[in-house]
Each structure stands twice: as C-alpha cells, then as structure tokens.
Write a structure and sequence with these properties.
heterodimer; A: Cytochrome Bc1 Complex, Chain D, domain 2; Cytochrome Bc1 Complex, Chain D, domain 2; 2 domains; two-stranded antiparallel sheet; 15 helices; 1% strand; globular; B: alpha+beta; Immunoglobulin-like; 9 strands
Chain lengths: 399, 149
C-alpha cells in the first residue's frame, strides 16, 4: 500500500517537475534559429571597392593595419586600439590613440557586413571608415599627403602591383589635408585640383586595402550556436552545447519578456540601426549627440558612396540615398552593437559608460530617460534571478 | 485492502485535477502574441475614398534588414490608373515610437498606376506602418498600410 502511495507521489512530482522545465514554443524556436551563426549569409561583394576580395590588397591592408608608421608620430596603428588578441578592441572606456578620444573602440567581427560605420554611422563604407582615424588628431593624427608619400616610399611596389601606377607626387607637398592643422589645410587649398585628386585616390586605395583585410574578420561559432543548431535539428545536445536552466531562462527572456531581440536580432545580434536607449553622457567629454550629427558628416565625406572614389555603379548607394536625415529619434542615437563576444569585452556602450553586463541589464530594466531626445527603452520588471539569467545567456555568446 | 483502493482513487483524483488545471491553462492561453493584430490587407481604399491603393513587395517576399523596393498601385474609384501622382512616404513602428530606419521614396513610374517605392527597410520584427500622402488630378488623400514581421 505504502509502495503504491510512494509511486503516486513520485509520479505527481515528475509531472510537476516537467511543468517547470524551460521549453520553447515553435515561435521561440524560430527566433532562436534566426540568431544562430549558421544563418549568417555569405559576405556580399562590395562593388564600391573592386579590390575588396583581391588577396594582395588584403595582404597590404593587413600590413598597413599593424604598421605604426601609419600615424603622425609613428606610435599608433589601427591595431593599437583594434587589438588582434582582444576581438580587435582595447578594453578601454574610450579609445586612446595619439590622444584620448570620446568613444569606445568597436570590436571588428563581421564589420564588413555593416551598412554604417562608427557608433554614429558617420561613414558609409568600410574603406571610407578605414581612412578616417588616419587623419583624426586624437587617433593616428596624420595627414593624407604624408600618408601618400609614405606609401610610395615604403610600399610603392606592392601598391602598384595592386592598384596600378602611383601618380607623380614630386610636386605634392609633404604635409597637406583638408582636415589637418591650419598650415596643412592652407597647403591643401593651394594644391591644384589634379594634385588633390591624385592624393585622394591613393588615400582611398589605402582604405580599400585595409577594408579588404578587415573582410576576413568574421564572428566565430559559440556555445549558443551549438545549442541553437541542436535545438533546430532536434539532436540531443552534447558537451558544452547543453544549456543550464539559468542560460535557458536567459535566452527565453532575451527573445521574450526583456525584448532584447527587438534590436539585437539576426545572427550578428544587431539590426544595424541607431537607437536612443537613454545611455547617459560621460562627464568631461565633449557634447555627443550621436547619429543626428553624423548624417551631415557622411553626406559631406568625399569618400562616401556618391563620391568620385567609389568603384562600380551608384546602385550600391541605397543606404546613403535613402538615409534618414532629420528625425527626432536620431538625437543621441547610437549603433546597436553585435552581442557576439560582448561578455568578455567590458566596458559597454559608446563611451564605455557601464563596466559590467549587470550594469547594462540594470540600465535597460530601469530605462532612465535620455538627457536629450527620447529613449526608446521602456521600464521592465526583472527579478534578480532573471537579470542573472540574462547575463548567463550573454556569456554563451562569448564561449 | 480497501485503503489501497482509497489511495489509488486519490491518485486518479489528483491526476484528473491536474489534467483539468492544465486544460484550463492551455485553452485560455492566447493562440498567438497578437490575436487581433492590425489590418494587414495589401489593397485598401484611401482614407477619403478617392483612390484604391495596393502596396506589395516587388520581389513578392519581405526580408528583414535589407533595402527593398515595393510597388504602390493607385486606381481611382472607377478603376482607372492614377498617373503622375505626387506621393510622400512616411511611417514607423507605433509600439516603439520611432519612425522608419530609412527614407523610402518613389523612384519610378512603371505605368498602369504602378509606382516603385525604393529604400524600404524593416530592421526588426513587429508591427510597422507605412503612410502615403497621395496627390493627383483626382485630389489629395492618404492611406496607411500595416506590415507585420
């Protein structure tokens, strides 16, 4: 009798335990599958850069990326901030080149898939992005005339094998740029149109070579991807593809109640858009209004998609052609970063405002209003257990 | 002996109760996230009834995160094609209080009242709205289309 009673109790417990298990609905499974790395499409051809998939261009780009000579004083390269062993970022709240900048260095995995570059999207192609820090006085702090002379002196043969003959630089001043010091700007303005175009063309090709290299930097498979693949195929998860109940809960919240997936969607966990999420400014940094101030900059950039240095035809310029120019939601809007690998690269946000994922989750749950413009985030009731679960899930994207 | 049957009966009773509770939970749970979603018809009368508008993706499918072109077809009440209409496009996500991530524009007139709208991009799943302000010889009117991804 007692045995039967015990059996009945055990059965009831088993049924109840089954109810508590985290299961995913068909809709949730579909969302999870859409986040997995195996749904990342092949990298599209960049018709604006006809050297994008030329191996010699990528090799030169790689050399330039790590070359300290690509700076005013020979101390800073792209890799100073985009560190190869640190997901191509530097773990600092704000990047430090020749000086301290006002923005966090962005990790580079999958960067060639972005429609816009920098936190505010002030450039519209990877090659136009790559030349921008070269002339930023706080980053590499050089000037384009000096870079072009340097390329000829140091890498002339390699350059010409890829891009064809270098222009005659004998009459081009040593230092000149439309963005440089007063003296460099004056020298630039005194140059002929032909000289300026010749310098700009070589400068653009520097960007195209670096971009060709950066196309090889792609996101790696993570524990989440192995879990998602098993979930999609119905295979029994093995090894590290098994999620703990906390990680399962975190994933369920990420795609459900916490609504993270609204913006962090697709296999790169980004909608490639710009949003005001109420992230506070950093005291002591210059005013920063995000996307709203970047639109004019990308439109004025001579290396943008409409400019003379684009390869291919104008049909590749849809993003710039249909860009939103003046909407209130552009104020303090910043790019949605990919969350792949994010757990192991604090601090977070466009100026490193938060030192941990716990702080990020707390910020989104609280949804404090933005200092300027309107935050798109709404307050969310999350228990301590739920917050910890979200962080636990995010860690599976970095393992 | 009788007491064993009492336990078995109690076991059945508990199981039946559990099944009943689960049945109620499942039967009353919403079938989908949006049981009464917005009207997603692709053809509708404009707000003041001046035109009949049809709005469809040019390639037949909607892909999230990509610039796409859509076709807006305008007919009058009597079914005549509306030519040379001036069309302004706006929209956004009503539940997120933000506009469109791009500025779609009419880029071509394809004849038979069909206008190509380029630069449409839906960056996230959810409820999107596209509004068209239409002006032609037949007068000015507006129409709103819902797109749910």
């Amino acid at each position: 009798m007692r045995r039967i009673a015990r059996f009945a109790v055990l059965m009831a417990m088993a049924v109840l335990a089954g109810c508590g298990k985290t299961d995913f609905s068909d809709a949730e499974k579909k969302t999870i599958a859409s986040l997995a790395l195996n749904t990342l499409p092949a990298l599209k051809t960049d018709t604006t850069n006809r050297f994008a998939d030329v191996p010699a261009a990528a090799a030169l780009g790689s050399t330039l990326f790590f070359d300290l000579g690509m700076s005013r004083d020979g101390t800073v390269s792209c890799s100073t901030c985009h560190k190869i062993d640190r997901q191509f970022q530097d773990d600092l709240p704000q990047a430090v080149g020749v000086g301290r900048t006002n923005r966090r260095t962005m990790a580079l995995a999958g960067v060639a898939r972005d429609p816009w570059f920098f936190w505010d999207g002030r450039r519209d192609s990877l090659w136009a992005q790559a030349v921008t820090p070269l002339e930023n006085p706080l980053e590499q702090a050089g000037n384009r005339a000096a870079y072009v002379h340097y390329i000829k002196a140091r890498f002339g043969d390699r350059y010409e094998r890829i891009f064809g003959p270098l222009p005659d630089l004998s009459t081009v001043p040593a230092n000149a740029s439309p963005l440089g010091t007063d003296a460099e700007r004056a020298t630039w303005n005194a140059m002929s149109d032909q000289q300026r175009d010749a310098v700009n063309r070589v400068f653009a090709n520097i960007g195209k070579a670096i971009a060709a290299f950066e196309r090889s930097i792609e996101p790696a498979q993570t524990r989440f991807d192995r879990f998602a693949l098993d979930l999609a195929t119905g295979a029994e998860a093995k090894g590290d593809a098994v999620f703990s109940s906390e990680e399962m809960l975190g994933l369920k919240l990420f795609i459900g109640k916490a609504k993270c997936v609204t913006c962090h969607n697709g296999p790169r966990f980004t909608d490639n858009g710009f949003h005001n999420t109420g992230v506070p400014p950093v005291a002591g940094l210059p005013p920063d209004r995000g996307r709203v101030d970047a639109v004019g900059q990308v439109e004025a950039d001579p290396f943008n998609c409409f400019g003379a240095y684009r390869d291919g035809d104008v049909s590749a310029c849809g993003e710039l052609r249909f860009v939103v120019k003046d909407a209130p939601e552009l104020v303090r809007a910043y790019k949605t970063p990919s969350l792949r690998g994010a757990a192991t690269r604090p601090p977070y946000m466009h100026a490193g405002q938060f030192s941990s994922l716990d702080a990020v989750v707390a910020h989104y749950a609280k949804a404090a209003p933005s200092v300027e413009g309107t935050s798109e985030v709404h307050p969310l009731q999350l228990s301590d257990r739920e917050r910890a679960a979200l962080v636990a899930f995010l860690k599976t994207l970095a393992e | 002996m009788a007491s064993i049957w009492r336990y078995v009966l109690a076991g059945f009773g508990l199981a039946a109760l559990l099944a009943g509770v689960l049945a109620i939970v499942y039967l009353t749970a919403p079938r989908s996230a949006q049981p009464f979603g917005p009207d997603v018809s692709r053809t509708k009368k404009t707000d003041n009834g001046l035109y009949v508008a049809t709005f469809v993706p040019e390639r037949g499918v909607v892909r999230q995160g990509e610039l796409e072109s859509w076709l807006l077809t305008l007919k009058t009440k009597t079914g005549a094609s509306v030519e040379r209409a001036a069309i302004a496009v706006s929209g956004g996500m009503p539940q997120h209080s933000h506009g469109l991530p791009t500025s779609p524009q009419v880029t071509d007139y394809l004849g038979d009242g069909r206008y190509r709208i380029e630069g449409v991009k839906f960056t996230m799943s959810g409820w999107w709205q596209l509004r068209f302000a239409i002006s032609s010889g037949a007068g000015s009117d507006t129409v709103l289309f819902n797109v749910v991804l």
